[in-house]
Structure formats: structure tokens, C-alpha cells
Amino acid sequence: MSAGSTEGAEVPATRTATGNLVVLTVPEAAELLKISRWSVYQLIRSRRLVTVTIGRRRLVPMAELTELLSRLVEEAA
Asked: What predicted TM-score, i.e. pTM, was given to this entire model?
């Protein structure tokens, strides 16, 4: 690998100018929610969690994660 190559390097999560996360990877979303990656993929398959795909990367927008949590709170009430 050349000195300027980023192949295989960990890409930091995208943040806004204020430092807030814009998107998360599936493992990051799972860690944030304290659930397994499998559970996150189940939410995606059941269309309860909307994601975006860029190339081969599936990313979870924070806005969608917040919306999912809001819906879950409403369902629990």
C-alpha cells in the first residue's frame, strides 16, 4: 500500500460543523442502541429503519435513528 492510499483504512464517521454525527455505520448504530448488528439489520429488512447505501457501505442517518426511537417510544406509551 502506498503512503497516500486509504484502502483498508478506517474512515471516521461524518460529522457536522458542530461535531454532531450525520450518519453511522451499522456497527456504530448497533453500539449506540446497545443492540446487536443482527438486530439493526432486522430493523432495516423490516423497513422500520431507513438507510442509505454508498458503494458497498450501508449508512444509517442519525435523523432516521432518532425517528425510529420516537416511533418506539410512541408505541410503548
From this structure: 0.73
Q: Are strands 23-25 and 57-61 parallel, antiparallel or unpaired?
A: antiparallel
7, part of any domain: no
Query: According to the model, what pLDDT value does residue 13 have?
Result: 59
Range of the domain at 51: 23-76
Q: Which three cell numbers stand for residue 65?
A: 435513528
Cell triple for 68:
425510529
How many domains does the chain contain in total? 1
Q: How far is residue 76's CA from residue 65's CA, in Å, rounded to a whole number?
A: 17
Compute, in degrees rounded to 10, the torsion defined by CA atoms 32, 22, 37, 8.
Answer: -120
Residue 46 resides in a domain: yes
Residue 45 pLDDT > 50? yes
